[in-house]
């Protein structure tokens, strides 16, 4: 990890650079796959599965028999953990239910909003180096609470054509309707346009590699909505001299093992902590099964010392981390001043792993600085808010003249007339 001490503000932009993920140069390749799936449906998806996932499938759908078998293959302790996580995620997201209030903006004019679920949503769950059954819970549980009518899940199978049993178990627990064996670009295209097997959805959620990210970007240009822009995962620890270097190092490494392009940052007011964390990262790294991945990720990572907490917060808000862990003596006061972050973990006993799995908050979060403008996935991600209004005679008399005046000055006479004819009728009736 790079050690940086008291950087000048002119250096901040360079220091805070993320690993580059340039999806634009993949667009031609990705578009070709999307077009084939759009034109040929299941046949193209099956061919792409053979080509990219090295598996010969006869059909895409996961069967009832496979779902039942998965339940027998998952260890009871893991089942209990998944159920506990599901319960906490459900509790937290259910508390986000929208309650629309009717507002009388003036006598006779009433406006309100109604929350309506997105009817069909698609969830993409990567296979890759780890089975992300936790992401199944993070996406399917709020979708179910929102009332989405159809929850479709795509995930790549292994070379024997099987989906990891923990993914299938989590999908059943969370309420997924249909599961398909498809990975990568072909999975995104299937959900965006529909095939003989995979239904077309209205919004696609879930993480993935750079090809999946490029595919989501392309299909979202006009055909389907997506959850948010995404890049490699990241964590920042904001710490003072009271932080435990063992905890800080563990938090940095928990992010680094995600992937070679992940980034872990320490911003601290203590040079002694910086040095202790460096030594502790090196010690703990040797014990990790995913050492090789974490080691490459650490090349993108930095341990930064700044002069005071004021500067530490300014640098943090400029970085806008996906995950922010605040390990300071006065962490609640520090947290009040955080304005750009995806999810914040407070105090020495709140590791990022808690949010990744079981505390209840969502782990699908904005990366690559998008926390300055985007929220993480929440119940709102699965609903739309429709506005309603009712104008009664008193209301039309009250606002009608103002509407006529505004429409006339925008030279939209038909707009004006839509009000004028109503006011005329009300005048006759009275």
UniProtKB/TrEMBL annotation:
Give the binding site residues for Zn(2+). Answer: 255, 258, 356, 415
The catalysed reaction is: L-histidinol + 2 NAD(+) + H2O = L-histidine + 2 NADH + 3 H(+)
Amino acids binding substrate: 233, 255, 258, 323, 356, 410, 415
In the record, which residues are listed under signal peptide? Answer: none
| Catalytic residues, chain numbering | 322-323
Record pathway: Amino-acid biosynthesis; L-histidine biosynthesis; L-histidine from 5-phospho-alpha-D-ribose 1-diphosphate: step 9/9
What positions belong to coiled-coil segments? 60-87
**What is a single molecular function from GO for this protein?**
NAD binding
Q: Which InterPro entries match?
A: Ald_DH/histidinol_DH, Histidinol_DH_CS, Histidinol_DH_monofunct, Hstdl_DH
Q: Where does NAD(+) bind?
A: 124, 186, 209
Cofactors that this protein relies on: Zn(2+)
Q: Which domain of life is it from?
A: Bacteria
Extract the Gene3D superfamilies matched here: 1.20.5.1300, Nitrogenase molybdenum iron protein domain
Co-factor remark: Binds 1 zinc ion per subunit.
Keywords, comma-separated and alphabetical: Amino-acid biosynthesis, Coiled coil, Histidine biosynthesis, Metal-binding, NAD, Oxidoreductase, Zinc
- What does UniProt give as GO cellular component? cytosol
Pfam families in the record: Histidinol_dh
Give EC number(s), comma-separated: 1.1.1.23
Any single GO BP term? L-histidine biosynthetic process
- Family listed: Belongs to the histidinol dehydrogenase family.
Q: What does this protein do?
A: Catalyzes the sequential NAD-dependent oxidations of L-histidinol to L-histidinaldehyde and then to L-histidine.
NCBIfam families attached to this UniProt entry: hisD (TIGR00069)
What name goes with this protein? Answer: Histidinol dehydrogenase
Q: Which organism is it from?
A: Bacteroides oleiciplenus
